[in-house]
Amino acid sequence: MSKKRGAKPKGLPLFGRGKEQTQFLEALKLYEGKSYKKSIKILDGVLKKDSHFVDALALKGLDLLSTGEKTEASSLIKNALSKIEGTTASPICCHVLGIYMRTSKNYAESAKWFHASLNNGSNNMQIYRDLASLESQIGDFKGALVSRKKYWESFPGYRSNWTSLAIAQDMNGEHQQAVNTLTQFEKLVEGKIGDSELYEHNECLLYKNDILYRAAGDNKGKLVNAMSNLKAIEPSVYDKYDLLELKASIHMKMGELKEASKVYRMLIKRNPDNFTYYRLLEISLGIHGDNNLRKTLYEKLQKFYPRSEPPKFMPLTFTENVDELETKLEEYVRPQLARGVPATFCNVKPLYRNRRSIVAPLLEKIVSNYFKELNPTNDPLPYIWTCYYLAQHYLFMKDFQKSQDFIDKAIKHTPTLVELYIFKGRVLKHLGLLDEAAETLERGRKLDLQDRFINTKTVKYYLRAKNIEKAVEIASLFTKNDESVNGVKDLHQVEAAWFIIEQAEAYYKLYRDSERKLKEYLNEMSTKKSAEKEENNKNGTDETGENFIRVLKNYEWQVNKYCGLSLKRFYAISKIYQQFEDDQMDFHSYCMRKGTPRAYVDMLKWGKTIYTQPIYVRAMKGAFKIYNKLYNDSKNLNENEQIENLVEKVMQEHSKKSKKENSVLNKRKEEEKKTVIAYPESDDKDPYGIDLVKSNSPMDAFMEQFYENYNRQAKEQERDYEFEFDYQYSNGKLALCLSALSKYTKYGHNSGLIGAMTIVLLLATKEDTKFDTIAKKVALKGCESIIEKFPVHERDNSDFDWLDFFQKNFDYHNLHALLFLHQYKVVESSRTKELILNELANKEPLIQNTVLQYEI
């Protein structure tokens, strides 16, 4: 850690290095001028005379890093660090090391060396600015406040320094100090602000009021102060929406509902299509629970805003009388269908979700009756979009056949409308016909070759159908393919996460398919009669053995290739999100210069949720499936020992043939590499991800690349505790499994899964399991308290029927819970499989196919 300011400088250049020091300073100037090669040339001469000159070693490492020679740079920096005791180097050396660490994205180490540079006597006050950015990046806002204040004291003539200091104070909870800082600067610049600075001034004024509002809480006196400030700055504020929203919020907190309602009416007048304003208007008027008054309100608002959606839609969410509701629904839906509005179903979809039992049959009746009135020839537009609506309706109701019938009618009537093919593909997807769905999207895509949306949709459908080659071909129509045979590299460069995650999952499916085929083939070969081999030996040939080698090599390569590529793509998602985190670094100074404090604070809040975003979590779970399987396979090496012996024996008997097949396979690998490589060859020595698959500690690799970041940011109520349980179980940490189960009982609503998790955890505490003894005792004690009257005493009773207990006490119709039990094999697999098959009978074909192929 850094030492106190004013401490005696250490690590200064040794006496007798005058000439070398001069040359070093010359090399430093060349580095600052980006003449890296010239700088290196001078440093080589210095190091030739004195190889222990730490400053020169560090600067040369930084020069090499700037030229892209990362390996040599790292070696030099390690050499330099080995010669430094603690942080007792010269201020310049420490600064250089700090810049190197920052460029290498090792922000915590960079901050340490910047601190060291200042503590060792550096007078370069610009270091405080860089240090503040680094401390903000690593979340050390206390340190950032100190650095911001030091820099502000040195350069008080810049507005950005005042703003950055106020933000640092705000981040540390020093709200009044932040307000004072901003107020002080406002007084200094009063009457001196130019036209180009007015917007920045407006942002800072709103930011100050936002601080006042947040600091006020429910304190009426402070809220009055915030309101007074808001009225005072109103003439200088450009963002009228935000100003009015703040004003309404303050009125609501102060209990001034009448004043708040006036403000919300002003907001509705400005934007009559914002549903939120209408809901808040109801609350401010105190009529949220009175449907009659709400009805009267919206009747009046419809007269004021006849072309707006909310006044017409909102009564549909609370009208109880069925006849009245039917009339209002008809008045809302029929005009849209008559005008040919494609989004009619989307507009009423919230009603389907929240009032399905009442609304769905009424809308089916209304739209079906309207459809009967239409003539395909005389009413082409209403006819098409009514068919489209009914197709969407029946898909929502899981009546796939009727949905398909109506979309087919629409396509027959107008076969050139792209949207119809997109929806038909969706219906076919739910029917489990993924290949047919992709082909349908392809027919739609060919109707409009310049439409990126239909291109993207088609790519997704081909990936889900495991036709990766076709998907890449279509995606490559809209990518830059200057230096590669397809668009895979460009899609990674532009961080197209939607494509990468879909491709990762497609590769995973192909991996599981190939693995199953390999096992089936090996089992088939192991049962071949020895008589066939003897006959081949008599004839002097062994076609069976030769063919076995060829097919076996092909299957093995497919398994490794698809597994590696799937993991490689999941890793790519992790890299993208790590890049998102690193990209914040630039904004710690940029937002200060541009005067956008509110946007900066929003970015900081977003930065705390990067690794909990849906696509990252999806990639993490996908990678865990692979790593967990690799880990379990490594523990169960004897399962396929007979098959492995067969493979080894055949390989020995046909060693020459095996070498020949290896040669053929290597050529094929080189050809295929061009189609799958995602990064420049200089940056990626493992395009197939084989090294990732061969990791000696898969769970450690998973933790470092995925789980660590997720665990750092995920909030308790947002975590996926089933995943937590799986992960900790694989790591052998039963106490943490118990913690995950306990939290799930608090936040989860799936009683079946709670029962399944408890059974798995209890049976893991048996004496013959390979878990830690103390962890077993903790978990056993926890199982007694998680579920009341749970038969913990039956743990060692081999005759106790746990599946029967599960069926009698929990929701055994829950497919998720049954799959969980089947995965852990704590009860007889055939029985859980039978229950799963019974539940699948009630599911849509897509779910059935997925579970049958990849779950059981």
Per-chain topology:
Blueprint lengths: L17 H15 L3 H14 L4 H13 L3 H13 L8 H13 L3 H13 L6 H12 L3 H14 L4 H13 L3 H14 L9 H19 L3 H14 L6 H14 L3 H14 L4 H11 L5 H14 L5 H4 L8 H18 L4 H11 L1 H18 L6 H17 L3 H14 L4 H13 L3 H12 L6 H13 L3 H8 L12 H6 L3 H30 L3 H10 L3 H52 L2 H11 L6 H22 L5 H13 L1 H22 L13 H4 L4 H16 L7 H10 L3 H14 L3 H14 L8 H14 L15 H8 L5 H10 L4 H12 L4 H10 L2
Family: Belongs to the universal ribosomal protein uS7 family.
Organism: Zygotorulaspora mrakii
InterPro entries: NatA_aux_su, Ribosomal_uS7_dom_sf, TPR-like_helical_dom_sf, TPR_rpt
What does this structure look like?
Keywords: Coiled coil, Repeat, Ribonucleoprotein, Ribosomal protein, TPR repeat. Pfam families: NatA_aux_su. Residues 504-531 form a coiled coil. Belongs to the universal ribosomal protein uS7 family. It comes from Zygotorulaspora mrakii. The chain is an all-alpha fold and 856 residues long. Among the domains are: 275-480, Serine Threonine Protein Phosphatase 5, Tetratricopeptide repeat; 481-529 and 547-709, Serine Threonine Protein Phosphatase 5, Tetratricopeptide repeat (Alpha Horseshoe); 720-855, no CATH class. Helix content is 73%, strand content 0%. The chain has 44 helices and no strands. Helix 42 (815-824) runs antiparallel to helix 43.
